[in-house]
Design a protein that fits this description.
isomerase (chains A, B), Glutathione S-transferase Yfyf (Class Pi), Chain A, domain 2, Glutaredoxin, cytoplasm (chains A, B), Glutathione-S-Trfase_C_sf (chains A, B), homodimer, maleylacetoacetate isomerase activity (chains A, B), 217 residues, GST_Zeta (chains A, B), 2 domains, alpha+beta, 4-stranded mixed beta sheet
Chain lengths: 217, 217
Amino acid sequence: MTESGKPILYSYFRSSCSWRVRIALALKSIDYETIPVNLIKDGGQQFSEEFQALNPMKQVPALKIDGITICQSLAIIEYLEETRPTPRLLPRDPKKRASVRMISNLIAGGIQPLQNLSVLKEVGQEKQLAWAQKTISSGFNALEQILQSTAGKYCVGDEVSMADLCLVPQVANAERFKVDLTLYPTISHINKSLLALEAFQVSHPSRQPDTPPELRA
Amino acid sequence: MTESGKPILYSYFRSSCSWRVRIALALKSIDYETIPVNLIKDGGQQFSEEFQALNPMKQVPALKIDGITICQSLAIIEYLEETRPTPRLLPRDPKKRASVRMISNLIAGGIQPLQNLSVLKEVGQEKQLAWAQKTISSGFNALEQILQSTAGKYCVGDEVSMADLCLVPQVANAERFKVDLTLYPTISHINKSLLALEAFQVSHPSRQPDTPPELRA
């Protein structure tokens, strides 16, 4: 935390995992400071000794809050939910909470890690677009089907949940990798509804302190 | 659930994600039935129409319980924790819970997905051993460092938690891929302590209904 007691978010404007946490902070009206970690510049600032001491996984986001540092976006969001429960990002009903966590983990464990920067580097420039498209499409095929039984206005029912915080940044990644989203009408529809909400707008990659001028909204 | 009301676990003996859930079920003394899903045989039974209807992600584990089907191992474990809280797999203190979830997600999102069967197929036979070793080593380097500040007898303090349910199966994968575990003394030590517990033994890949005779303990 800063001397003023504000939490500090280590974030990169285009990181989908950072965006998830930014949405949670916005929804819960938690005032925070951003320290940008540029994943490209200087060979990747996440590899600096200073940052590695903070997060040995060399990934954003990391959140300094209440005297501790938490890494892994879902762990951060669950902590915020337990310590700042209003508005809730997990439903009261355990079965609905299970749906929220299932969708969140499907995206955070089943899609995003396979199309993140470090994996695409390994895959090589030639194959990386096809690789990312295949990964995202395969996950979205499953998600579109699951949403048929869980979704209302949003991923699970009519309240914004942690699952929605995962969905919107993943759809943005899908757009960057030119995935045909017309194949996923439910995902697209929910994404559109969520992007109309203020918390999803202020946290958007196009409006961060480290967003390059040419990408600013 | 079966007619007798028992939960049904769709599992593959060697799947590290299935093992996580088997440990949770054993620790919480939840009686269940196993339906094996062979990820290799018949081109992969997870691709059958029947199984896809159950889990569109075409992955094990899936758990039928209380009239619902839950996929994604961490979502299943969190549901079991909320509905069958004894013994607890998450500490009471929110900061310690954050550590448990951080380590669980580091493994479940940051290591395992990058060395699972479907990714290794994409990577190709020649490169897959090096790929898996690099992924696991990179994750274990981070984890070894994190454990310096969280571990007691187990990953977080002296009580078995969800983090431990993720650790042991991941170490087994590391052994299969011949990762040099002497580089990770804390991980190795905790793993050894956990493997001495009955819940980790009865759930072990060498003791499942679908374990091939030549691999049985």
